[in-house]
Amino acid sequence: MAPNTTPPAGELRPGDRVTFDVDAVGAGGVGVGRVDGLTVLVPRALPGERVEVAIVRRRRAYAQGRVLTVVRSVPLRGVPPCPHFDLCNGCDWQHADAAAQLTFKRQVAEDQLRRIGRLTPPPEWRIAPAAQTLHYRDRVEFSFLATGAGTRPAFHAFAAEGAKDDDDESVEVPSPASLTPITDCKLVPPGHMRAALALAGWLDRALPRRGRGAKPPVYRLTVQGDAPQPAPGVPSEGGGGISLLLHAADADVARQLQRLGEALAAHLRGAAPAVRHVAVEFRQQRGRRRARSVILLGEATIGKQVGGRHWRVPPGAFFQVHASMAGQLLEAVLAEARGDTPRPDGDAGDAPDSSHAPRAPQALDLFCGVGFITLPLAQAGYDVLGVDVAEEAVLAAGDNARRWGLPQARFAAAHLGRPGALRRLLRDEPPPALIVVDPPRQGLPRELTTQLLSLDAPRLLYVSCDGGTFARDAARLAPRYRLTALRGFDMFPQTHHLELLGRFTRLPG
Ligand SMILES: C[S@@+](CC[C@H](N)C(=O)[O-])C[C@H]1O[C@@H](n2cnc3c(N)ncnc32)[C@H](O)[C@@H]1O
User: Active-site residue 185, yes or no?
Assistant: First the structure.
């Protein structure tokens, strides 16, 4: 191994250049190396490579760098299929082959479990690869950027020191400097991209430009699939329409868009014939949390289909973005819930058995969204209470339960981070045999973890999109639960993200 170049680690400052070997991948997908004992994190550098790096940020315990030159490459490095990869922050590993990406994800998840959770991965630990690694993403959010050639759809720009506004959900309108214009995206279906480009061109012509520094009239666009309800007896998977949700700067812009609605719909359908739903979301007054929406084309809700099941969803609500991997995740949750999976202690689980049980076992689905997991759990024989903070998602979940004919699936809106919120909801409920949690990437609020421990359910299934907070929460659950199985689902190929499903089994006693 070639020696690292200096300056010595203690003196490393932004602007310094160092050359060293990349040893591993770290959280966020960065390459990790050491310079005289100091950890240096370098986005897009791959393990095994030797890189010349400019230091861009110095923290007490580590430095961040930007690759200047790959001095020695590795065979797993390839040519990224996307022309925007070098400037766009949407993907981390388009330049690494698919098998290597899975190896990296496994290593990072194991490292987080060990380091943050002080746990060893359970013997039952595997990752399901994605059959489709490009154009798999059913939902995408674009910003808009004014360029010399007109308004363009845009994503967060790649920045070696970390994208400035990325990951900060309170930033509604990213600064133009943090964006890069996009004409193609290899993660989404081509029709989604065509629709976004068509909208950008139309906005330039139809809406007056605002002054410099003003919020653009339409500052964000959500494009996603709108799957038709399958006709009885007709197999239907995908092949659906496209939905556009325009986020308008204010009520005036929303009114203008409403007036121009027919022209806009005709223009969009000319460019992307699959467009069958267009809505505008806006806030009545500045700073108001709750958004209002008007429908310009199609119905109030859109269709989502996973594994032959069909949900109706408000266009602003959360829904899994990779249908085939979401189907695998759901089947794995159901297998756990039915007790299909072997248990180390020989316990067959608490699967519902209607022939013996006087009443169905109780399940809780926390962070339930529109009932993606709740409704199939109810179909599997559980009496399920789903809880989510998003009221429109909870209302849609209730509508879906009625459409599916499942009175045993009930829903409540609550902020699960508030002290005592879950306890109040469960006052008149029997103790749950099963708890499913699927929080956002911040993981479980601490107070909720304490409440979950006191419920003392025999099994807890934890669906996570963030290995770091999953590991932290696994450690917090450790006084009462053992992590007995861990599955990964490659929901987000080309990025460092990995979906996890952990089975936590109550300790004896
Ligand atoms: C990762 S999504 C999972 C949704 C659902 N399980 C699914 O698979 O479609 C996380 C959900 O948590 C909800 N959520 C976020 N913070 C919450 C909180 N403090 N209390 C309750 N729900 C919350 C969001 O509205 C979102 O629906």
Answer: no
Choose, from 88, 185, 368, 465, the residue flagged as catalytic.
Answer: 465
User: CA 284, CA 399: separation in Å to the nearest integer?
Assistant: 26
Minimal-distance CA residue to ligand 1 atom 13: 367
What are the Cα distances from residue 28, in Å, to 408, 464, 467? 40, 15, 10
Ligand 1 contact, 202 CB (< 6 A): no
User: pLDDT tens digit string along 54-65?
Assistant: 999 999 999 999
139-313 CATH: 2.40.50.1070
pLDDT digits 0-9 by tens, 107-164: 999 999 999 999 999 999 999 999 999 999 999 999 999 888 888 999 999 986 664 4
Angle at 369 between CA 490 and CA 106, to 5 degrees: 20
Binding site membership of 371 for ligand 1 (Cβ less than 6 Å)? no
Domain boundaries, the chain: 9-77, 108-131+322-506, 139-313
CATH fold of the domain at 108-131+322-506: Rossmann fold (3.40.50)
- How far is ligand 1, taken at its centre, from the CA of residue 252, in Å? 31
**Fold match, 108-131+322-506 / 139-313:** no
Collapsing DSSP to helix, strand or coil, 324 comes out as helix
| Model pLDDT, residue 433 | 96
Domain 9-77 - what CATH class?
Answer: mainly beta
Is 423 in a helix, a strand, or coil?
helix
